[in-house]
Predict the structure of Adenylyl-sulfate kinase.
Amino acid sequence: MTRSNPPTLPPVLWLTGLSGAGKTTLARAVQQQLRARGEACEVLDGDEVRAEFWPELGFSEGDRAANIARLGALAARFRAQGVTVLVAAIAPYRHARQEVIARLDALEVWVDAPLDVLERRDPKGLYARARSGELPNFTGVSAPYEPPTAPALHLQTDQTGIEDCTAQLLRLLDAHT
């Protein structure tokens, strides 16, 4: 009896960075490109998934770790079905993020911009609310963000446009398929 090699699983990109850095925007742009090529792709936006599936989670370190672990479990399920997964989540604590990334053998991408740029962008008004004290434990203002130490890709969205960032992400994916 001949054994065949198991099919290669598609990659998981884990986009991490502060609110407003461009994680979801880039994930959606890559998703659009992959679908145009006929490839199955799913975006798991940390805020959207949390609100829909586990709104009971708060923003303590433990709740943030639970959110990341659950996102990782969802990503693993999609991946097992042959779907490329793009996770867009702040995931502020390095140890929780690294556990899930290691388990998934995911490619960590740091989507980065200086805090002053993010506060100017502030599409949801979150930084202003955090500065006023309305949002306690807000990552980057009153709660820590631990950046990746060795990401597969570091995108500085204050210096590089969406098209160039998308192209870099697609090259990274293509190199790992």
About this structure: The chain has one domain: 12-152+170-174.
